[in-house]
Amino acid sequence: MRLQDYRALSFDVYGTLIDWEAGIGGVLVPWAQQAGLELDQESLLREYARHEAAVAREHPRALYPEVLAQAFARTGRALGAPVDEGWRQHLGGSVPDWPAFEDSAEALASLAEHFSLIILSNVHRDGFAASNRRLHMTPAAVVTAQDVGAYKPADPHFLALDATLRDLGVAREEHLHVAQSLFHDHAPAARRGIDSVWINRRHASPGWGATPEPQDRWSYLAEYPSMAAFAEAVRDDQHI
Questions:
Q1: Domains defined for the chain, CATH in brackets
Q2: I want to staple 56 with a disulfide (CB 3.0 to 4.6 A). Which of 3, 44, 151, 164 is the partner?
Q3: Which of 12, 19, 185, 195 is labelled catalytic?
Q4: Is 126 among the residues known to form the active site?
Q5: Separation between Cα atoms, residue 28 and residue 24, nearest integer Å
Q6: Gap between the Cα atoms of 67 and 63, Å rounded
Q7: How many Å apart are CA 60 and CA 154, to the nearest integer?
Q8: How far apart are CA 70 and CA 7, in angstroms?
Q9: pTM of full prediction above 0.85
């Protein structure tokens, strides 16, 4: 298909549009320095990633600030440096401060000329509203972890997406999922037969960062190093 043959795009937000590694690392790094841990941001994110995934899996109805706080506490215990309540709440309340990638808002504005835009995010409603002040989106629909009572890579987001597409009158084959995380997004998309493209924000960095290494099979139709590159491919009406 050509990219412009699709009618709707769904987006992961944190890692794809919002730089969650900068946001999380902006709390973990000063905490580690205060705790006397000689670990760089990549090491801290790698340790944190597995704990956030575990908390989200074990407490699917917890709001995202609580998931962040609990994951931070587990990270500290694993590293032998307990995290006090102040630091836990600092990370839990930090989502509104996380920066957008520099190309996100402009790329979204360009894409909105061609597609209905849908949010499919592991966050709570207030968290996305705060982040959207940086993105300036007018989404056709917003599906959050708070709405579905679960966190990706579990299926409920994608079941809700099917209902959203029906409500918008968009056929499944006219929809494309746009995301960075192979673990949270591309593996469950592959499981459900959903077309997707990979925004590989970590193309210049080794390892998995704040995202666990995927254990399930994943696939995607095309890879782009940024949202700007993806928006340019749409403007050029490239095939994928």
A1: 3-19+99-235 (3.40.50.1000), 21-96 (1.10.150.750)
A2: 151
A3: 12
A4: no
A5: 6
A6: 6
A7: 9
A8: 39
A9: yes
